[in-house]
Amino acid sequence: MKVAKRGAVPPFIVMEMLAAANLRAARGGDVLHLELGEPNTPAPKPVIEEARRLLADGGLGYTESTGMPVLRDAIAAFYRTREKLDVPARRVVVTTGSSGGFVLAFLAAFEAGDRVALAAPGYPAYRNILAALDIEPVLVETEADTRFQPTPKLLDAVEGRLDGLIVASPSNPTGTVLTFEEMHALCDYCADRGLRLVSDEIYHGITYGVSATSALALNDDCIVVNSFSKYFSMMGWRLGWMVVPDDLLRSVETLSQNLFISPPTLAQRAALKVFDCTDELEANVAKYARNRARLLAHLPRAGFDRLAPAEGAFYLYADVRHLTNDSEEFCLRMLAETGVAATSGIDFDPMRGAGYVRFSYAGSEADMSEAMRRLEAWRR
Ligand SMILES: Cc1ncc(COP(=O)(O)O)c(C=O)c1O
Questions:
Q1: How far is the CA of 1 from the centre of ligand 1 (A)?
Q2: For 39-48, how does the pLDDT look when each residue is reduced to its tens digit (9 = 90+)?
Q3: Number of domains present in the structure of the chain
Q4: 9 or 182, which is more confident
Q5: Does one domain contain both 38 and 133?
Q6: Ligand 1 within 6 A of 101 CB?
Q7: Same structural domain, 51 and 145
Q8: Domain limits for position 155
Q9: Which ligand 1 atom minimizes the distance to the CA of 123?
């Protein structure tokens, strides 16, 4: 039988690293998880209590495909208070995680054969979802000199036509944040050339001493993708949202009806409580900040001294070319010899990632301290 080529997207290497870490744990070894890109905190307590209550009540039918109006209103209100942005609830579309949002966004905005630029290193699902939809990902190789973010100059150097650009600020895997001026320049670049901008703002709310600018403030035609998975610590609830420009709203709605029917109802209704949990959520961010300070102090002593400026999210992207030319083998050896799991850069940058490692500091403070102690001893 025929097997479609477009389904053959590359695996997530981080999942394979996780499998190696789990195997080590199953054999009685201990593992410190610095490979996982997710908070180790549960959803805030009021969300969990509300979900319990809703489950007992029953009646969790489908909702509107674009999400419950009351949740869309709450997200619009969140933009007003947090980002001082006036976003009409009509343009907010609730999705099945930001992952579901990308599928809707790419289908609504791009044709098969279109070419969409995105930074390498970057979150691998962007290019893999684009490829599965027959949209060509055009990788823009970024370096430490632009904090691994794309710039108009780098986009100008791309050969051939472009139809869109994906940006992520704060970025995964580097944690770097576009300044207001840099975001402005990219927004204008896209507007002037008719490129559809997709801005992944999933790590908004998790920054250290800088603030992340939303593309919504600067580009009327952009699609903003966001999620309850990171700042709100609701990973497995599979809930996200998009802010969609008017010309794409109807497509996104009908695509959502057909692809997903509706986002998860339990998660939507429980998420209404999360906007009142600022203290708990900010305590999570304060923990990331302490973890970040710990890693920034200790990783250089362990030989990881070429780090991208970690301005947001919970990642440090380390240039390890002075230590190895095969970061996948290096990470497996580090796991075997120290029990510290980290992720090879090849997930994020197929061309140059063998020279980079991503450390995630979303885990517990005790794990971070112990991991730093072991890595320092290992590299001594
Ligand atoms: C940059 C980025 N975007 C999107 C996602 C997907 O998250 P979710 O589908 O849980 O919203 C992730 C997950 O790690 C991510 O790092």
A1: 34
A2: 999 999 999 9
A3: 2
A4: 182
A5: no
A6: no
A7: yes
A8: 46-276
A9: 1
Q: Among residues 241, 276, 311, which one ends one of the domains?
A: 276
Tell me, what's the pLDDT at 20? 87
Positive/negative CA dihedral, 229, 298, 150, 214: positive
Query: Same domain for 209 and 294?
Result: no
Q: Are 158 and 285 found together in one domain? A: no
CATH number for the domain harbouring residue 171: 3.40.640.10
Residue 339 sits in the same domain as residue 245: no
98 lines ligand 1 (CB under 6 A): yes
Q: Does residue 123's CB lie within 6 angstroms of at least one atom of ligand 1?
A: yes
Query: Which atom of ligand 1 is found nearest the CA of 96?
Result: 9
pTM (two decimals): 0.96
Contact 365, 287 (CB under 8 A): yes
Ligand 1 centroid from CA 2, angstroms: 31
> How does DSSP assign 300-365, residue by residue?
GGGT---B----BTTEEEEE-TTT-S-HHHHHHHHHHHH-EE-EEGGGT-TTTGGGEEEEE--S-H
| Alpha carbon of 376 to ligand 1 centroid (Å) | 31
Nearest CA, atom 1, ligand 1: 172
- Model confidence band, residue 302 (pLDDT cutoffs 50, 70, 90): very high
How confident is the model over 267-299, as pLDDT tens digits?
999 999 999 999 999 999 999 999 999 999 999
Q: Which of 167, 229, 343 best tests ligand 1's pocket when mutated (most atoms within 8 Å of CB)?
A: 229
Q: Is the CB of 172 under 6 A from ligand 1?
A: yes
Same domain, 229 and 308: no
Q: Is the pLDDT of residue 11 over 90?
A: no
The answer to whether residues 253 and 352 belong to one domain is no
Which of 178, 249, 187 has its CA nearest to residue 220?
A: 187
Q: How many angstroms is it from 241 CA to the middle of ligand 1?
A: 12
Quick one: average pLDDT of 74-98? 97
For every residue of 349-360, which 3-state class applies, written as one string?
CCCCHHHEEEEE
Q: Is there a contact between 107 and 198 (Cβ–Cβ < 8 Å)?
A: no
